Please model this.
Amino acid sequence: MQIGILQTGESPDALRADMGDYPDFFESLLADKGLTFRRYAVLRNEMPQSVTECDGWLITGSRFGAYEDHAFIPPLEDFIRASYAAHVPMVGICFGHQIIAQAMGGKVEKYAGGWSVGPTEYDFDGEKITLNAWHQDQVVVKPEAAQVVASTGFCDNAALLYDNRMFTVQPHPEFPREFIEGLITHRGPGLVPAPILDAATQRLDATLDRAKMADRIADFFKTHQKRAA
Model:
């Protein structure tokens, strides 16, 4: 099963050479799951020709806001709606989670409650899963088509499921400890309040459930493929 990675952001210059870029993280997270990958630099306006060009789609995180004026956002929103209409499965992570919600009629905004950074526990329908967070923007109004499947006291719409066609998650299962530590060091100062960065640093050694979320994402794609067959 080929998954098209729609890249909407880049890892910081100071980290990319040693740790890789966003598509690298996803290919590593989903390695050995029976998936192959094709990359599209959507942030540079490289869009697929058709929603059926790959068997499924994954939208990465980004430093951009879904509500900002960038040339790639309107065509990406059109692509999201076309993928949903065509029943081609799609996964969105952080910005991907937000842009899918916005494209489907929800609302995304810079959250008045501030930032969520570092290891954070999410309630996935009763199962506690800890993943790294790095966001201030949130889906504050979910689309009518979406069902909430994970939340926290800070983030009501932390994961959404759209009629088994799209699965989106606010935190970053693809980010290992070292990358979040790098973001705290290189991107955080001046952007994220120091007390939040300090608290996140204290939690860096928390056990992350990245493998569990990798299984959920891979199972979502494969289950959809089996139904289509």
Summary: The mean pLDDT is 94. Helices lie at 13-19, 22-29, 73-85, 95-103, 177-186, 194-202, 210-228.
